[in-house]
From TrEMBL:
Superkingdom to which the source organism belongs: Bacteria
Gene: metF
Family membership: Belongs to the methylenetetrahydrofolate reductase family.
UniProt cross-references to Pfam families, sorted A to Z: MTHFR (PF02219)
Organism lineage string: Bacteria, Pseudomonadati, Pseudomonadota, Gammaproteobacteria, Chromatiales
Record-given protein name: Methylenetetrahydrofolate reductase
InterPro entries, per database record: FAD-linked_oxidoreductase-like, Mehydrof_redctse-like, MTHF_reductase_bac
One MF annotation (Gene Ontology) recorded for this entry: methylenetetrahydrofolate reductase [NAD(P)H] activity
Length: 289
């Protein structure tokens, strides 16, 4: 059954890959090995995160520049507005545009720990600011299980609509594990008139312990079957990788059958699992580096 389902979607699938700025020379080497492995799959774009409040926007920009130079791929920096003024953002946007960057992943960013005041700018405002500077291709974030700060699901959905109406071209979702939740969310987006692509963010989970902590902060449910799947594997990275690939494969298979034709991979700077999942989706090397 797996072959039949995957062949059905072969040739019609787009992928994109997300990376983060490495902190050590060794991590940097891993990142470049991963980019070199994944680039020939001709992703629609690759993106590089920027930690809000980290003050390391230049590092994100440097990696974006290097990816563009070394691979020719469309490389999109993530940009947050929680830690910048409107004037700063206009200057950054102008600088990006002048440097040939045309695609930006526009985010608010998390509030600094302990902060109680309302932020001046939300992601929808950032989309508007970027649009006022130039004709950027803009991706935004979406939350099938509702953003933790949203007063309710409808408010959060309307927030995505505001981002789309302000000029975003697509929404990339927070990672999730219950495909039904994604599909129902996609339906609700359509029903409310959000006409941009809702792209599932796929996280192959190789470190379950870390996921459990992170999922709590992000309001993402980790189903009981996943706890069971990773049980007893804390010291067995090889089996964890196989389990991770299997779970992510199952998810993309279900989503493909429901017409999803673009998957965004949270690679965590590793290529193996994303590459294998792409391979099974029929996404094969096309570009020679
Ligand atoms: P928004 O869309 O602005 O929404 C934030 C919250 O505010 C929501 O609860 C929304 O409902 C609410 N809200 C919106 N407008 C208003 C309003 N006017 N009044 C009151 N409430 C409002 N973080 C980083 O620091 N760096 C990254 O590189 C990064 N990349 C990410 C990539 C993806 C694909 C995703 C899904 C998330 C990423 N994040 C990143 C995390 C993101 O910054 C956080 O989830 C952040 O808390 C919300 O960002 P947002 O862009 O979704 O914000």
């Amino acid at each position: 059954a797996i072959n039949r389902n995957l062949q059905d979607v072969e040739g019609k699938v787009n992928v994109s890959f997300e990376f983060f700025p490495p902190k050590t020379p060794q991590m940097e080497q891993t990142l470049w090995q991963s980019i070199e492995r994944l680039a020939p799959l001709a992703p629609s774009f690759v993106s590089v995160t920027y930690g809000a409040n980290s003050g390391e926007r230049d590092r994100t920009h440097d990696i974006i520049k290097s990816i563009k130079q070394r691979t020719g791929l469309i490389a999109a920096p993530h940009l947050t507005c929680v830690d910048a003024s409107k004037d700063d953002l206009i200057a950054i946007a102008k600088d990006y545009w002048q440097n040939g960057i045309r695609h930006i992943v526009a985010l608010r960013g998390d509030l600094p720990p302990g902060s109680t005041s309302k932020p001046d700018l939300y992601a929808a405002d950032l989309v508007e600011i970027l649009r006022s500077v130039a004709d950027f291709d803009i991706s935004v974030a979406a939350y099938p299980e509702v953003h933790p700060e949203a007063p309710n699901a409808q408010f959060d959905l309307l927030n995505l609509k505001r981002k789309a109406d302000a000029g975003a071209s697509r929404a990339i979702t927070q990672f999730f594990f219950d495909t039904e939740k994604f599909l129902r969310y996609r339906d609700r987006c359509a029903a409310i008139g959000i006409d941009v692509d809702i792209i599932p963010g796929i996280l192959p989970v190789t470190n379950f312990q870390q996921l459990r902590k992170f999922a709590g902060l992000t309001n993402v449910a980790v189903p009981q079957w996943m706890h069971k799947a990773y049980e007893g594997l804390d010291n067995d990275a090889t089996t964890r990788n196989l389990v991770a690939a299997n779970i992510a494969m199952e998810m993309v298979k279900v989503l493909s059958r429901e017409g999803v034709d673009h998957f965004h991979f949270y690679t965590l700077n590793r290529s193996e699992l994303s590459y294998a999942i792409c391979h099974l989706l029929g996404v094969r090397p096309q570009l020679a580096l």
